[in-house]
Amino acid sequence: MAIAVGHFHDVEPPDVRGRHCRLHSVAQLDSPLLDRDNHREHSDAGGGAGHTGLSPRRRSQSSPCFTTVAAPAGGADHRPPPESSGKMPRVEVVAGRHARGVRELIAEAAAAIASGTRLVPAQGGLGGALLLTGSRAGEHVAVIKPLGDDTAAAGYESKAVLREVAAFLLDHGGFASVEPTALIKISRPVAAPMTTTTTVASIQRFVAHEYDAGELGPSRFSVASVHRVGILDVRLLNIDRHAGNILVKNPPSSSRMQQPLDLVPIDHGLCLPEQLDDPYFEWLHWPQSSLPFSDDELAYVASLDPFRDAETLRAELPALEEPAIRILMLCTIFLKRAAAAGLCLADIGDMMTREFTAQEEEGLSTFEALCKDAHDAVHPPSLLPCPPPDGDGVGEGTATSSSGGRKHVSFGDLSVAEWEAFLERFEQLLPAALDAKKRAASS
């Protein structure tokens, strides 16, 4: 079976031409595999093991994903014959088309499929992810995770895959080493005349690795890598950064024991929740997190523009809910102010993380308490209690709810004017909280 691939504005990557294939069609696309479990969200990211070390609430519901698109070699005329052109499945790059490394990723996937490789289920994890192997034995190009049918394609029903793409789009210049990721829509004809089925998937470059962070001690990791992953997690309010979704990048064989190891973050399906929640930062108590940011890291944080990032997400991922985008803006502002005030990554993460009281009940984090005060100042809470959020907070709630003495704040209930007033009030409250944290850390 062949598959048609959407153009990158008629740009053909040179490396694909060199392999005598181009991005117009591919062979050996396994429809049964792509059709399987479209509505489920899985956690096997980057082909890594299914290690989580966490309760079911903490398990990642998504994974970095890879899509198969390619074009076999042919004669001088690469176009399909007229009688088959109407029956070819089509692949469209829905989001991330122009982002760093996406065109190259699609080209490599195309070349791999053209060379005769097939999709195979990934080993380990919660299942559902598909590996695209390269032309050399044991080499993986990408992981594919189908995520929806026609309904999901139209409405982006699976929000986890949107967050995977969002994390990549927000990793400017590859600062945190998020691998190239794009959103793909695959349309395939079925037996009924003039009928097609549509599958949505995300595609992400496979990360070559031998270990995840849970299999090595943190002393082996470079300070820069820990800081960069942490900066990304703070911006995204990642509630699922456990050791199993931090991969340890393979160093050159000649220097395996001579230099700190770099990290690659995967599995971002539980970042950017739609209401404030308790993040999980595996790196929080690593020694690197207590070291000051470098000048380059401070410059990067200072350069972040939360309002421009918000516009990027609205343009590329219009189905991502506005409360999630506002979480990004808020967390980025918090990160910028905290870093400028001289706080280290561990201090920033600690302010965002809830503590357990003597009665083993979660209390508000410092960050949440600031947000609650600012929210209540511009939008007084309702006297009627709302049911508590279900699970991880992703895709939950557009209002402030109360239960058991604790509030879960979302910003979907704020008008544009109220949101602007909230940010203004938040920034008024923030300096005193940052000063208090600095005094506590130095005492």
In short:
The protein is of the alpha+beta class and 443 residues long. It contains 13 helices and twelve strands.
Describe the structure in your own words.
This protein is an alpha+beta fold and 443 residues long. It is built from 13 helices and 12 strands. It has helices spanning 14-18, 31-35, 82-85, 102-114, 150-155, 159-170, 223-236, 295-303, 306-316, 322-340, 345-352, 366-378, 416-442; strands at residues 4-5, 90-95, 119-121, 130-133, 140-148, 181-189, 196-205, 209-212, 246-249, 263-265, 401-403, 406-408. Strands 1-2-6-7-5-4-3 form a 7-stranded mixed β-sheet. Strand 4 and strand 5 form a beta hairpin. It is globular. It starts with a strand and ends with a helix. Residues 1-5, 7-86, 148-157 and 401-406 have low confidence and may be disordered.
Keywords:
1-phosphatidylinositol 4-kinase; 3-stranded antiparallel sheet; alpha+beta; 7-stranded mixed sheet; 443 residues; single chain; EC 2.7.1.67; 12 strands
Layout of SSEs?
Elements: E1 4-5, H1 14-18, H2 31-35, H3 82-85, E2 90-95, H4 102-114, E3 119-121, E4 130-133, E5 140-148, H5 150-155, H6 159-170, E6 181-189, E7 196-205, E8 209-212, H7 223-236, E9 246-249, E10 263-265, H8 295-303, H9 306-316, H10 322-340, H11 345-352, H12 366-378, E11 401-403, E12 406-408, H13 416-442
Parallel strand pairs: 1-2
Antiparallel strand pairs: 2-6, 3-4, 4-5, 5-7, 6-7, 8-9, 9-10, 11-12
